[in-house]
Amino acid sequence: MANRVTVNEQICKGCGLCTSVCPKKIMVIDRDKLNAKGYNPATVSDIEKCIACAMCAIMCPDSAIKVEKE
Amino acid sequence: MANRVTVNEQICKGCGLCTSVCPKKIMVIDRDKLNAKGYNPATVSDIEKCIACAMCAIMCPDSAIKVEKE
Amino acid sequence: MASYNMVFAGFGGQGVLFTGKVVAYAGLIDGKEVSWLPSYGPEMRGGTANCSVCISDLPVGSPLVTEPDVLIAMNGPSYDKFIDAVKPGGVVIIDSSLVNPSKRREDVTLCEVPATALSNEEHLEGIANMILLGKLLESTGFASMETVEQSVQKCVPASKAHLLEHNLRAIRLGMEQ
Amino acid sequence: MASYNMVFAGFGGQGVLFTGKVVAYAGLIDGKEVSWLPSYGPEMRGGTANCSVCISDLPVGSPLVTEPDVLIAMNGPSYDKFIDAVKPGGVVIIDSSLVNPSKRREDVTLCEVPATALSNEEHLEGIANMILLGKLLESTGFASMETVEQSVQKCVPASKAHLLEHNLRAIRLGMEQ
Amino acid sequence: MTTVYEKSKMLTDAPMSYCPGCTHGIIHKLVAESISELGVEGRTVGVAPVGCSVMAYNFFACDMVQAPHGRAPAVATGLARALPEGVIFTYQGDGDLAAIGTAETVHAASRGENIVIIFVNNAIYGMTGGQMAPTTLPGQVTQTSPYGRDVKTAGYPIRICEMLATLDGTAYAERVSVNSVPNIRKAKKAIKKAFENQIAGRGFSIVEVLSTCPTNWGLTPVEALKWLEENMTPYYPLGVYKDITAEEGK
Amino acid sequence: MTTVYEKSKMLTDAPMSYCPGCTHGIIHKLVAESISELGVEGRTVGVAPVGCSVMAYNFFACDMVQAPHGRAPAVATGLARALPEGVIFTYQGDGDLAAIGTAETVHAASRGENIVIIFVNNAIYGMTGGQMAPTTLPGQVTQTSPYGRDVKTAGYPIRICEMLATLDGTAYAERVSVNSVPNIRKAKKAIKKAFENQIAGRGFSIVEVLSTCPTNWGLTPVEALKWLEENMTPYYPLGVYKDITAEEGK
Amino acid sequence: MAERILMKGNEAIAEAAIRAGCRHFFGYPITPQTEVSAYLAKRMPKVGGCFLQAESEVAAINMVLGAAAAGVRVMTSSSSPGISLKSEGISYIIGSDLPCVILNIQRGGPGLGGIQPSQADYNQATKAPGHGDAHVMVFAPSTVQEMVTCIFDMFDLSEQYRVPAMLLGDGLLGQMMEPVEFPDVKVTPAEKPWAANGHQNKREHNVVNSLYLQPDQLEAKNIERFERYAQIQANETRAEAFETEDCDVLVVAYGASSRIARSAVMNARAQGLKVGLLRPITLWPFPKKELLKASKTAKDILVVEMSMGQMVDDVKLALECKKPVHFFGHTGGIIPTPAEVLEQLKTIAGGAAK
Amino acid sequence: MAERILMKGNEAIAEAAIRAGCRHFFGYPITPQTEVSAYLAKRMPKVGGCFLQAESEVAAINMVLGAAAAGVRVMTSSSSPGISLKSEGISYIIGSDLPCVILNIQRGGPGLGGIQPSQADYNQATKAPGHGDAHVMVFAPSTVQEMVTCIFDMFDLSEQYRVPAMLLGDGLLGQMMEPVEFPDVKVTPAEKPWAANGHQNKREHNVVNSLYLQPDQLEAKNIERFERYAQIQANETRAEAFETEDCDVLVVAYGASSRIARSAVMNARAQGLKVGLLRPITLWPFPKKELLKASKTAKDILVVEMSMGQMVDDVKLALECKKPVHFFGHTGGIIPTPAEVLEQLKTIAGGAAK
Ligand SMILES: Cc1ncc(C[n+]2csc(CCOP(=O)(O)OP(=O)(O)O)c2C)c(N)n1
Ligand SMILES: Cc1ncc(C[n+]2csc(CCOP(=O)(O)OP(=O)(O)O)c2C)c(N)n1
Ligand code: SF4
Ligand code: SF4
Ligand code: SF4
Ligand code: SF4
Q1: Is the pLDDT of residue D43 over 60?
Q2: Which of E10, E52, E65 to probe the G interface (max G CBs under 10 A)?
Q3: Which of C10, G75, H113, H216 has the fewest other C-beta atoms within 10 Å?
Q4: Is G302 exposed, middle or buried (0-12, 13-18, 19+ CB in 10 A)?
Q5: pTM exceeding the 0.90 threshold for the entire prediction
Q6: What is the CATH number of domain C4-175?
Q7: Is C46's pLDDT higher than 70?
Q8: pLDDT at residue E173 in the model
Q9: How many domains does one find in chain G?
């Protein structure tokens, strides 16, 4: 079983800071989605690779990310 | 002939700063005189001893002293 | 029509303020009384932007358009915000690539132009607004094409003169929609 | 006399403000309406100080005395400044050790008390003002000696209580002049 | 599952009004987490400035007062004097703190006022649309330095920590950055330490946080992090400028 | 006979309004002599503060502007920008410069504004009757620190030269004293140098002059000189805190 | 009742504040009100209170904002130029609905002006204490004793209505000594559930704020505040009428100038002139109904001020311009004399008699 | 005449200032007037002028004082809270008899308030721009073009009378674009023998000052200044009358709200209502005689403002309270609509008809 990363898509502003710090490069902006405020939210492309380092969450200015460890 | 020290008695406030720095102790407050503002002006007690060092004049906050050298 | 009261609305960055300015300048060139008023303040950042434009034969009173004859909406929130205010009989032009008009009104003319899609197809990236302007021109005739051309010339800064032709092409494209 | 309007004037440091306060307090002890108003501001420093004191059966209007019934002048400039303002029939008390009354008025009573000289003689250094207060008491009877004694007690701060007797002695001395 | 990271309870649910990728949000988190970890939410009163963080009163879950532009240290002084048990902090931008608020900042420090100042230095006026700040770098283009800041007419940037460190009342002054995860971790430590100082009554603590303004710098959020690192940190060296606890330790 | 010393022509005939023995008068002389010796009376504009020296406009024989309390550096900035050929100086007390005028002082320095500031530090508010100043020494009794300045509630004195020396815009900052003839001679050199800097366009120069306030210190003028030396100089060390000409020279 | 003692106006205010439960004072020195600070610097430490000399008037008023936001009784003091500097802060305090007491012991203006008594900040105090639609309650006592009673009321009313209260005095009232006694009342400050003093995890977080980015919210806030203003105008006007029952000429004057006017009225009565005095004690709210009542028999009104004539308009408006309103005053620190006012009264009465 | 171009109000002011010979600007950013600074930051260096962003509004107004004292044309700009901060400096500038131009592009208040258009600083501008007996000339243009013409006049008149001039605009006028053309006039600033710009050993030293410690001197100075004020009141009032000849109801409104009022009047006329508009262009001096003339036939007056009603009193006073004065307005940044004003006009006209 994998770790869990939850992005609050309504709060996310698609700034990409999380994606820039993810050591596994699995945090990505989802260009296909648009939230109510008009932003493309971040999402995890491959949760299996997640090491729960929480770099993304620490970096997120909007506290949109929750990281849980197996 | 001696040096000349002129105290503008109307301007002098009798503060005594000049007397405190005179190396020859010849600059004194004249307790017998009172100027229009109610101050006892400074005066030179013994001009012969004056070395025209101008210490008194340099110290005088009210520019009341003029020093001339022989 | 003696006067046009228009609202241009969308996300910041979509060029709605610029579009409004081109329209106002066209009015000026035609010798009309005109005004242009942007929304301003922090809500502009990351949020929506809009401006009011008035073109009239008489001096403009309030430059703030609260009951537009014409609404150009470039995103959903803007459409939602202004659609109810449009005067009966008014014209509403939307970028249908971005706006999915949830609410429809029977008493206004709705022009749906997939401006963003078109701009991408036609290598006119970033000037979907000019396509909508073309549609506005076509549907209201608020000015002549020549006037609008002059107006665009006025509004495009010298440093970006090379984009002039692009803009005009986009307007023409919009007129054909 | 229903009211006294007095001016106390001299150099800063001569205690004119304090004298005025003692007089005002005496009025208060006697159940009168009183006021005390100092001159204030930078001109006080190194310059002259003065205060207005009113004692009256009725509420005091302007606490600023412009036409004194009584003037106590402790230096020449003060005498010169206020002598013309004294009401005809008024009383003028001067420290004649310090004031040489250049101008004399026929219509006022002038009491010349060599207060400074006296105070030095009588080992009452620095309280020439109290000697003048004694003279004031004697010449106007604005209050009783008992009242003034109480007043001095009020006005001398606890830390200086040992000076009380000196003050009273000075006042008595002044009354005898 | 164990939670490795989640939103601090000292932050309200109100979505933050900052631009996408603006590091104001990160700094908010660090402040909230520090207060929360120290368990003093209930007696904390924060002071919001005028600037992009003017609505900080909506984001922090402690009592908050909104101050006039630049006067947060004075407002905090009033609070601190009225609430001896209170934990008082201000959150201020560089225009707020280092321009209009210079006197209030210097004097709160000089008085050793028992408050924490979180000083967000983003080298520009964010809220009003990108004017030159006292901290704008030489040559930097802003709305009011359109040809680049010319030090000959517009003067030099002010290094606040260095300046305040000269004052006897300053207990703690450190400059940190939030441009990377390691720096964020250091920033968190500094901010927490400032609050610890406050709780211990050590007096005036300021943490200067280098921050981004992607919107007015005209960069993407990620570019902005890099610009900060490459341009701001050389001019504003990170580090501790004063720490009376360290001095005491000596 | 040759004149060894006489009243400067840059001083008017108006008798000075200072208390007997107040060293404001000495500092006036040094300013006047410096301007006179540099031959720039005709293009000098001075700014008078609010404080005992408020009427400096009556004493200096150059054009003068009276500024609101603390704002002399801003007024001087306006003058300097309007008169590129002007020689602009301010003359300010410690309440004026270091309390209410802190922001204006720091920013004029930071801008490297081409002005001279003569800063008269007498550790008290003279004109208003002896209140605590930012420069009042710990323990010093004043009207508003009647039990002696308690640094725990009233804060610490500010050392202005040290603080301004941290700013890039400051060209020259020196602290001098006028409590003795040798010190007066040094003070004169410093003041003259500040004006030379101004004339050469080197930017912001400040000379802090330790001065007495016999009246509000409750001392005789001569005692006051001694008090200054014994109490103020230890806290406010004399010396050069910044000098770009020296740095250039290196 | 306690003993009557002689006290300077400035000191009496300071003592009254302490007795009214004020334990926080933030100020900056300025003539002619320095005694307020000097007194409190001595007294506050003895009663466990806080006296702080701020670095400026701007800082002082914002310290007041902070302390008031925390819910304590707080006061600040200044004189004319310092009040101008405070006007942004005052506007914020108004906009944040905070209670506090502000003293303006006026001096001559404009600019640095002078330091002698003046009443030339009337318009600023009553009409524009800061930017925006904003008012403070303005009290204008005329004796040292009344300064004391006003201070008690000001703290109470300010809390009751959540509107700052300003005492508009002047150098004359601040500097003079008069007998005064301090009432022996128990003070009970209002509950302040809105205060930002730490929620102790027991309630939602409080916010003290004057920002409303949505115009409709800002308008609603302003309208709500003006409803409180209307209550104040209805319930809190104060004035004293003196010899007004049958007056032909009514003098209107407040504060220091009302003392002079009162003497003039007494002298005029002694000379058989039917004149009276209406002395507003609150300047905002302006005592309209009191003025209407006092002026019933009057044919002419004479306003006496230590300014170029600032209250005149309020008098005219209160009377709906139905009676001629004359003005006499001095400005710049000159105190009018009773004789000058009497002169005016004679001229007007003479004119009216014709 | 030059070409008509589209320009924002704020930018047009800035350009007009440059063309009026202003080469010195000191300001501090604040919404909604930032474009003034932004424009001048670009333009000033090109014309050899000085644009300086001060560290605060307090510093900015004192830089203005310094530059004005040196004799140059100088301008500063701010919005409501910033103007409060400037009030001490403004009072000093008045007290020093210096000319300058001050912009207040008003926003909602009090306190931080909001950033949308407002007219709630009317009282501050016209009655108490600072402490003391003090006035500035206040201009209230209603179009971008008129802003330009006002700016030229303001520099000239300010120098002529040695009284600062304030442009009282608002966020609407500052932010909107309208066609504007710049007059091609040659500017000749007044001689300034009083300037503190270095005596060059050719004259006595000049002093720019507002301190007069002797009350009689301060009073004399104030009286002399009020004589200039009286001249301004006699000669410099400006207003525009629109459809007033036969009106039953006269609307009085200035600046942005006068535009709305004008639309309402046009609509009302179209509906047969006899209504007119008097638009004050100078607020101080208030155009009394123009108002009296315009209101000749009117039975009712309606004042429209973006505030809680601040000009109302001036209108009443000008009319000596002889006609009922109604008020309609919004505050806090809400812009009234012509329809709302029309509604009011109908109600009043209906009432009047009865
Ligand atoms: C007295 C006053 N002056 C100016 C303003 C306008 N203003 C609002 S925020 C701001 C500057 C904000 O910059 P900064 O403090 O650096 O914070 P940031 O927005 O960058 O976070 C200014 C000048 C104001 N509200 N009040
Ligand atoms: C705005 C304002 N605040 C306060 C004052 C009152 N005031 C006049 S001088 C002064 C302080 C003077 O002290 P300092 O600057 O140290 O000069 P000194 O008198 O000692 O030479 C103060 C507070 C004022 N005139 N204006
Ligand atoms: S950092 Fe946060 S706001 Fe930015 S993209 Fe990632 S989740 Fe979204
Ligand atoms: S120093 Fe000057 S003022 Fe003082 S006593 Fe000597 S001569 Fe007189
Ligand atoms: S303007 Fe700049 S500082 Fe303000 S929220 Fe946006 S990015 Fe952040
Ligand atoms: S009060 Fe002090 S500083 Fe002022 S003139 Fe007197 S001695 Fe000098």
Answers
A1: no
A2: E65
A3: H216
A4: buried
A5: yes
A6: 3.40.920.10
A7: no
A8: 98
A9: 2
